[in-house]
Amino acid sequence: MYLHVGEDTLVRTRDVIAILDKESASSSPILEEFLRGQEAVNLSKAEYKSIVVTCDKIYYSPLASGTLKKRSKKISSQEF
């Protein structure tokens, strides 16, 4: 199944490693260093609200991490 992460972008749910909110990402120097070294796609026209880490890329999403979490739970429960 796929998860809509913003701006008409879909990501395979099995490829999602983490969904982080902006505050937690900015409060950790180790996480900031990790994010700088990865290929990133900014989907937000203004400020991003969450970060979606996948196997291949990092997406800066305009959607809140709680919203993405709810969407991923709905998808995973529909898979079975």
What does this protein look like?
The protein is α+β, with helices and mostly antiparallel strands and 80 residues long. It has one domain (2-70). Helices cover 35% and strands 34% of the residues. It contains three helices and six strands. The chain starts with a strand and ends with a helix. Pfam families: RemA-like.
- Terminal CA distance: 11 Å
In percent terms, what proportion of residues is strand?
25-35%
Mean pLDDT: 90
Helical residue percent band: 25-40%
- SSE order in H/E notation? EEEHHEEEH
> What's the number of extended β-strand segments?
6
Organism: Mesobacillus zeae
Protein name: DUF370 domain-containing protein
Pfam families: RemA-like (PF04025)
InterPro entries: RemA-like
Which key terms come to mind for this protein?
RemA-like, 80 residues, 35% helix, alpha+beta, two-stranded antiparallel ribbon, 3 helices, DUF370 domain-containing protein
Task: Write a brief structural summary.
With 80 residues, the chain is of the alpha+beta class.
Secondary structure topology:
Blueprint: E1 2-6, E2 9-12, E3 16-21, H1 22-26, H2 29-36, E4 40-42, E5 50-54, E6 58-61, H3 65-79
Parallel strand pairs: 4-6
Antiparallel strand pairs: 1-2, 3-5, 5-6
